[in-house]
Amino acid sequence: MNAATRVFSRDFDADFLKLPAGLQTRIQAKIDELGASLDCHPHVRLNGLSCYRLRVGDYRIVYDFDATKGVL
Questions:
Q1: Distances in Å between the alpha carbon of 22 and those of 1, 27, 37, 42, 64?
Q2: Radius of gyration of the chain, Cα coordinates, nearest whole angstrom
Q3: How far apart are CA 54 and CA 57, in angstroms?
Q4: Domain residue spans in the chain?
Q5: What is the spatial distance between Cα 10 and Cα 16, in angstroms, rounded to a whole number?
Q6: Global pTM?
Q7: pLDDT tens-place values along the chain, 72 residues long
Q8: Hey, what long-range contacts does 10-14 have (CB within 8 A, 24 or more apart)?
Q9: HSE (CB half, 13 Å, CA atoms) of 72?
């Protein structure tokens, strides 16, 4: 499968740009890795919600996806 199309929220953009450059790089790498393996990634659903989480150190990326459309 090709890499998924990423759609970021305004809240994500605002918070992401406040982080140190090194942490931004680590988070972006994890998001890229997730997008490249969307169909076989072990997604972890948040309790009581319909979205998933991806951990990067002390941070949690909350996301939803549609593997059939290749959208993350």
A1: 29, 9, 23, 25, 25
A2: 12
A3: 10
A4: 10-63
A5: 10
A6: 0.81
A7: 456 777 788 888 889 999 999 999 999 999 999 988 888 889 999 999 889 999 999 999 999 888 777 777
A8: none
A9: 22
